[in-house]
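Same chain as my last thread, 268 residues:
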Amino acid sequence: MKWKIGLGIIMIFVIMAIFAPFLSKYEPNRTVNLPYQSPSSEHWLGTDRMGRDILSQVFYGARLSLTIGISTGLIMTAIATVVGMISGYYGGLVDRILSTLTDIFLVIPGLPLMIVISSYMRVRGPLMVILVIAFTSWGSGARIIRSQMLSLKNREFTLASKVIGESNLYTIFVELLPNMLSLVASIFFSSVLYAIIGEASLSFLGLSDVSKITWGTMLYWAQNANALLNGMWYWVLAPGLCIVLLGTAFALISFSIDEITNPRLRSK
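reply #2:
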C-alpha cells in the first residue's frame, strides 16, 4: 500500500512537470500583475515581489527539481554500487583503500561539505548542484552494498562462476548484481530523497543558480522578501509542501522495497 501511495504522488508531480505549460496560465518569469498580490481567482497563490505568478513557478519548478533529484540519485547509486561491490568482492588492499575512502565521506557531515564545495564553485547551475551532491553523498550506499557483497561472494553460484573461469568483473556485474537489484533500488529512492532535500538546502542558501526556477530557489526568494513577516505564507507553503510530499513519496517507496526484500520488516 505504501508504494502505491508513493508512486501516485510521484506521478502527480511528473504530470505537473511534463504538462506545466498547459497547467499554468502564465510564463513563470513574466510579470503578470502587481507585486505581492494575495491569492485570488486569477492568481491562486498570489504573485511574488516581481509580480510573477507563484502557482506557475510551482508547476515549472517541478521540472528542474525532479530532474536534479533523479539525475543525482542515479549518479549516487552508480558510484555506491561500483565502489561497494568492488570493495566487498576483492577484499584485501582494494577493500582497505575503498573502505577508507568511503569512511571519509561518511565521517564528514554531508550538508556542510556540500556548502563548502558549492561556495568555492565559480560556475553555479543545476549540473554543478547534481555533481556536488552526488560526489559527496554516496558513502552510506556503498557501505550497505559492500556488506551485502561480503555475504554473496562466498555463495555456491559465485564459487561456480570462478571455477568455470569467468572474469571477476563478469562475476560481479552479471552474476552478483542481479541478486542485489532490490537493494540497489532502495538505495536509489533514498538517494533521490536526499538529493531533493540537498538541492533545496543549497538553493535556499543561495549556493546554486537562483535565476533557475526550482522549489528550492522559490524558498530562497521568499526568504529574501521576508514572505512570512509580510503575511505571504503561501509563497513559502507551496514549494515547501511540494518538497515534503515528493520526499515522502520516495521514502514510502524505499520503505516498501525494504519490507518486500527483508522478511523481518514485513507486517504480520
